Amino acid sequence: MGTKIVQILAATLFLATSQAQDATAVAAPESSSPPISTTRKREVIKATPGPWGSLEYYQIPLECPREYLNFLTTPSQQVAWHFAAKSREELDTILLKAGLTSVEISMALKGASILNDPEAMRVFPTDDAILGISHETRVKLYHLLARSDGNRYYQRPIYIDSENLSYWFEGSSVPRSAIQDVAKLAYPTPHGRGYFLADLPFTLRQASTALEERQLLVGLLRQQGLIVRLRLTRDSLSPEIADYWNAGYKNKAVMPILESVVQANDGGAIDIAHLLPATPRQYLNRFPTPADGVHGRFPDWFWTCYNFFRFAPREIYADSPEREALIFTEFERSLPPLQFGDMLLLNSGNKIIHGCIFVADDIAFTKNGADLFSPWVLMKIEDIVAYHDLVGDVTLSVFRKLQPAP
Fold first, then answer.
1. DSSP state letters, 53-117
2. Mean per-residue pLDDT for 79-92?
3. Peptide bond just before 337 cis, omega within 30 deg
4. For residue range 206-248, what is the model confidence (pLDDT) as tens digits?
5. Which range is least confidently modeled, 261-275, 334-348, 368-382?
6. Does residue 406 fall inside a structural domain?
């Protein structure tokens, strides 16, 4: 397993003892604009060898079907910040407590329209303020906004899991000028890996035509997945590798295909999609279809985790009343070394905010949202944590599927 993931797990308290950190206590990483370059060569990375065998992987972009944009409510072009404050004095106190200086507060609120509602305050910043605040200020301000209801795009910002924006938008129709605008507004995640973009309404407002707006939306909504391959030869195919992918006989069908790969010209590489159980194999690297929402909602992370080894998926979700009972009756707490099919829970304080399935090394199977625009993908666990870690306090706990009673 990857060293950083071991470190995360070693520092984890299980969900019963996890305590939330105050977002204001989180030290913001060094902040700067994400770089922009024009070319790169696709990199095939060798994973750390382990009981899973010799793996290699590379990243692929996944774009949602264009017709899905018809189901998306285009955000208002007016940027609004919602604060739990009833007066300007209370607002200043909240911002100071979040770590902003008086100068930063003045710059962010300069020229802004402010409306007082009974339970909250709405601030409509100017374009100059949105573009002009520093990345350090943006990190502190947007982390604060993420904690308040009403700030939809700050509570679930777009996650860009690339250190270079050109890599993220590579192959898309997004013009370079729009990428440069995104670079000004993107800010580092608390995890220090990748960037968040919360200013979707402002970004879309910069589009000059409806076509450009749709192209930008498709580019921003793209997700990154991994293609992972297992390399085998007669010498390398061992009982340990077969046992690993068998997952304690929960995934019995893998041995014939492993032997077939070895018999073909003394081995080769096989996409591990072929080694996944039937349900995740069916969904990997695809977006949900409208038919997947026939029950009135789309699959989420718990649906994905719970049904990983099930041939016929059960309609069960993260907010289902029986979720906790299912976790503690059909799974058991576990510790590293992890096994194929282990469920990793991401805990923020005493709340489970996401879950994914461990595959191998530091790679997991995940669905990061409960909507049409969240595909099932393989991702680095570090990226999954960065995607969901909005305040810098996420810990991991491990649960292993119990063997069915004989």
1. BEEEEEEEEE---GGGGGGS-PPPSS--EEES-SSHHHHHHHHHHTT--HHHHHHHHTT-EEEE-
2. 91
3. yes
4. 888 888 888 888 888 889 999 999 998 878 878 888 889 988 7
5. 261-275
6. no
CA distance 284 to 308: 11
Q: Using CA atoms, how far apart are residues 259 and 351, in angstroms rounded to an integer?
A: 43
Give the CA radius of gyration of the chain: 23
The DSSP code sequence of 288-355 is --GGGGTTSS---HHHHHHTTT-SS-----TT-TTHHHHHHHHEEEE-SSP-TTPEEEEEETTEEEEE
pLDDT in tens, 41-67: 678 999 999 999 999 999 999 998 888
Considering the chain, what is the average pLDDT of its residues? 85
Asked if 232 and 245 sit in the same domain, the reply is yes
| 106 found inside a domain | yes
C-alpha dist (Å) from residue 191 to 106, 141, 391, 392, 393: 28, 16, 8, 6, 9
Per-residue pLDDT at 7 exceeds 60: no
Identify the residue whose tokens are 């209801």: 149
Whether residues 196 and 256 share a domain: the answer is: no
Residue (of 299, 310, 311, 312) closest to 366 by Cα position: 299
DSSP-assigned letter for residue 164: S
SS3 of residue 8 by DSSP: helix
343-348/363-367 β-pairing: unpaired
For residue 11, pLDDT beyond 70? no
Q: Is the pLDDT of residue 338 over 60?
A: yes
The whole-model pTM stands at 0.86
Asked whether residue 79 falls in the same domain as residue 60, the answer is no
- Rounded to an integer, what distance in angstroms lies between the CA atom of residue 26 and that of residue 48? 31
Pair type for strands 376-380 and 187-188: unpaired
Q: Residues 328, 278: one domain? A: yes
- Residue pointed to by tokens 């829970």: 345
Number of folded domains in the chain? 2
Rounded CA-CA distance 221/40 in Å is 21
Query: Rounded to whole angstroms, how far apart are CA atoms 395 and 61?
Result: 28
Separation of alpha carbons 139 and 391, rounded Å:
10
Interhelix angle 254-263/239-246, nearest 10 degrees: 140
